[in-house]
Amino acid sequence: MFQKLYIYSMRIFFISTFLVLINSMLIGQVDSIFIFCDSTNFNNLYDNYLEDAYINCDVNYEGELHKSKIRIRGSSSRDFPKKSLKIKMELLNGKKSLNLNADYLDKSYMHQYLSSLLYKKMGQISFDCTHKIVFLNNQLLGIYIEVENVDTTFLRRHNLNSSGDLYKASKDYANLSWFDDADYYWEKKTNKHLNNTSLKNIIYDLNIVPYQKFYDYVKNSFNYNNLISSVALNSLIGNGSTYYHNYFLYNNTFDNKWYYLPWDLDKTMSSYNEYLRYDYCSWSDTLSGAMPENPLLKKLFLNPKTSSDLLTKIHLLTKTFYNPKILYPIIDSLSILLKPYIALDQYDQLSSVEEWEKEVEKIKQYIVNRPLQIQYQVKHKPSPFYLYNNYNNLFKDSVQLSWSPSYINQKICTNYSVKISDSKLFDTKNTRIYKNIKDTFLIDKLDVGQYYWHVNAQEKEYKHNGYNSRNIFWVGKFDSLKDTITKKTIIENKNIIIDQNLIIDPDGELIIKGNSTIQINPNCKILNFGKLKIIGSENESIVMKCSDEYFAWGGIYSEGFLDMEYIDFMQVEGESIVRQIGGEAKMINCRATYNNVRETVSFNHCPVKITNNYFNTNGGEGILFLDCSGIATDNSVLNIKDAIEATSCNNMKIANNFILNSGDDGIDINYGFNISVYNNTIIKSFDKGISLTLDSLSKLNLIKNNTLLSNNIGIGIEGSGTAMLNKNIYQNNNTKVFIEHPRTITINSKKQNTYTKNIIYILVFFITVILFIKVFLSKILNNN
């Protein structure tokens, strides 16, 4: 039996190798892949193409025969007669996966190859792809594109941290909007044992950060060159099949920078024709809110600085890489290479070689016309514009909708149409359409209920919608909280309006939970002297925001019991988002980005539990503790000075926090007793990663197992007293440890060197031997 298997394998190997040589010598230089499997099993794959079932096969790849498995791959492409394939091969040093794309809709067989090549020519990260001639049981199956996997190997090849978070936009609606679901529409390719928190936080940020401040935000949060270059090139190649699926986002955990990585570039280079809108990201944008738009793309074109950088980059690319001088010779070489196989492929949708040649010529015309079309759109078509208060806004009765102006040839557009409906598709009898609006606002009265609205700027027959295409508001469907809460009050799954300072009496208790939005009038606060519980859920955070996008509310002041879980804080201005004095405080899984406050949250003279919160760019300082006890764990604090500060605290744990770009110290401990600071990651602090100020009462303060990267000073210690430093990791800090007054500070470290340990082990061994001999001799003497 084994002899027959050996003969069979060798026969396959020699036949396929011989065919490879014949293919190379007589036809061209396109590499071949030979697949050998049971024909019935392969036909079953085609019959059940929606399944991800593998069958066994042998594959001759690059002249070597491998035991392998094969299945159908792709999403919508599975419906086409020519299927894309995924092969897993067994190698001597592991396994290798092959993605063989049929690219059925690309009659030229060049879109994916050219677009990926352009990414690499401009110095950006992209997958490799090459043409392959695929044979099945020695019969030509067709022309395929082998596409490199985007995985940890890919990241390492591009000198990126393979332990970073890599997410694939694997399903439609992976568009980073409020309506995106990071757990459903996205597939995590690395760190699969961890949750999708980093992606959920970036989705939150992208929707929260005002477009006016978007340049500063993306400079801090993204690799700016990668982002601007990728978006500019996508505009030029007409990549209309991204931003809602078919792309990757990668978060480099060393500096918390995000990267855009392209995927499935077959629908480019004339697939959508040269007239595709340069900021296109939704197939329903001018008609309805069926497909919400991507806030990353839209705000890049809304912000004056990022928009200017994008248009400049587009112009630069046309002068350097994206032009006939560079691309025509590449296309001509590809044509010579592919032409012998075009007539042989019986499974594509080409009827003749002449039809294929027309498709190639179409690409050449597109390369010439596309930059001119973008220039024309920018100058003569309505510019991007923004809809204010566009998410879950509440109105009592009279509805007031407004938007920023669109411009045409540097003149304000004076022709808008507005749709309002109880359906996001604007397809019901309750849909209202307002035409020929010359201003940038609309006032009307509507019945109680939830509504969607949508605005188009028009220039003759051409329409361009304002961001966003899916916007929600409510009329009259809310609870109004006024004056003082004097008893136990529970509100669940309701929209709430607070139109003046809300006071919770010492005997009062307010509980808000479920799917709720809290809208507070400008400059108003919540003052808690009793019990306040605001409890959202992992799937439905409670949003607390100002009633008017132009203004801000004053945050929460509390002297009683405070429990906040799964809350998104927006548009807060003043001292703090939350300021607690006395009482008891819990803050769990809350988020706050771009609030204009002196300190993000402040807790004074109280026990605390502050865990799993996300704070980014909130103006002043971060999480402040004065005379507190408890825990501050698993928080992310980005772009905030003195990210975590604890003064005169006791019995407190500060652990597992991620701190990036602190404008001063990452963690600042001033005095205190029994403070444990451990397992924190602190990167790029302007001054110290960890600062410790001691006095005579500062005892049992432990700094352990922290990772300190690229700070000015890793750990800085001042004052007088004792500190315990143990097993901290230092990398690329200007100074590892700085002690301001060495004579007054004692550093204790539990870490022993190997030499000391070995001496101890030897002494213990000899003492044990001596004791054993002593006991043994004693027994002998006693017996005698």
Overall geometric form: globular
Strand order of the largest sheet: 22-25-28-31-34-37-40-43-46-49-52-55
Portion in strands: 35-45%
| N- and C-termini, Cα separation | 75 Å
- Biggest sheet layout: 12 strands, parallel
CA radius of gyration is 32 Å
How many domains make up the 3D coordinates?
5
Helix content: 10-25%
Average residue-wise pLDDT? 90
Number of helices: 12
Q: What is the β-strand count?
A: 57
Poorly predicted runs are 1-10, 12-16, 18-27, 751-764
Structural class by SSE content? alpha/beta
Walkthrough of the structure:
By secondary structure, the protein is of the alpha/beta class. The strands form eight sheets. The chain has a twelve-stranded parallel β-sheet, covered by helices on one side. The chain has a twelve-stranded parallel β-sheet with strand order 23-26-29-32-35-38-41-44-47-50-53-56, with no helix packed on it. Strands 24-27-30-33-36-39-42-45-48-51-54-57 form a twelve-stranded parallel β-sheet, with no helix packed on it. The N and C termini lie far apart (75 Å). The model is unreliable at 1-10, 12-16, 18-27 and 751-764 (pLDDT under 50).
